[in-house]
Design a protein that fits this description.
Layout: H1 2-32, H2 34-49, H3 56-62, H4 79-84, E1 94-100, E2 105-110, H5 115-120, E3 122-124, E4 135-139, E5 165-169, E6 173-185, E7 201-207, E8 215-227, H6 233-238
Parallel strand pairs: 2-3, 4-7
Antiparallel strand pairs: 1-2, 1-5, 3-4, 5-6, 6-8, 7-8
Length: about 250
């Protein structure tokens, strides 16, 4: 009897030792490949929420949800934030998509500036803004990493040039903007997203550096509005490209 109890205890001890060993190995892998794990989660969720994966009806339903528009609540992108957000990234309010084919951007547009929204796509910056009207303003993170520099979320805006086309859609209409300027400003320049009388434009905002001391601003003018069903296959294809900005 004593021998059986001893074997049972040893068995439990070995099991706990094995579990601990596996846990330590996983932690070690996470520390070694920290940015790669983060980037993999970003890519997976971005693909899941792309506008091509969401019905027009769901987009219309999400339009009436409340969004967070507190600029001060936005936190810097980090591996810890991405990993912690997995439970929150299940039912994000997709209200459209943005594509800039020439820099390989194809991201979901979420309502508001919730931190989770900005980890996986672009967030609207003003409560009542409407696609194709006024100054339609979107923000997303710039990902700073050696492996994927200038490839993820709004990082490719570093390569944006005057004349490039920006497409946004809510699956009802497709709005075509043409970039007119790319510039760097300080974080206090909130006037950049304000509406101007009689001007329909788009403003894209991302951090210029890891310390968020400056912002990259991309501005474009509305050039064309078309029904989604009548939009060319070439443009619609830009919204169907899987997000591949991740390499092992």
């Amino acid at each position: 009897m004593f021998q059986k109890n001893r074997k049972k205890k040893n068995k439990h001890k070995n099991l706990l030792t094995n579990i601990l060993a596996v846990f330590l190995i996983l932690i070690s892998i996470a520390l070694i490949f920290n940015s790669k794990i983060r980037d993999a989660f970003i890519v997976w969720n971005t693909n899941k929420y792309q506008v091509s994966q969401v019905s027009k009806e769901k987009i219309e339903e999400n339009q009436v949800t409340e969004g967070n528009y507190d600029f001060d609540s936005v936190k810097a992108l980090s591996s810890e934030a991405v990993l912690a957000s997995q439970w929150d990234a299940q039912k994000l309010p997709v209200i459209g998509g943005i594509a800039i084919p020439e820099v390989e951007i194809n991201l979901p547009i979420f309502k508001g500036l919730d931190n989770v929204n900005l980890l996986y796509g672009a967030g609207t910056m003003k409560r009542d803004q409407v696609m194709g009207k006024g100054n339609y303003s979107l923000a997303s993170h710039h990902v700073f990493s050696v492996e994927n520099a200038n490839q993820m979320l709004f990082s490719p805006l570093d390569r944006a040039k005057k004349g490039m086309k920006i497409y946004v859609t809510d699956k009802n209409k497709v709005y075509t903007y043409e970039i007119r300027e790319v510039k760097t400003v300080t974080p206090d320049r909130v006037d950049e997203i304000e509406d101007r009388d009689g001007v329909d434009e788009i403003t894209l905002v991302t951090c210029e550096d890891a310390a968020a001391t400056e912002r990259t601003i991309v501005k474009g003018d509305l050039k064309e509005t078309m029904d989604y069903s009548q939009t060319s296959e070439e443009i619609l294809t830009a919204f169907n490209q899987p997000y591949k900005q991740f390499t092992l």
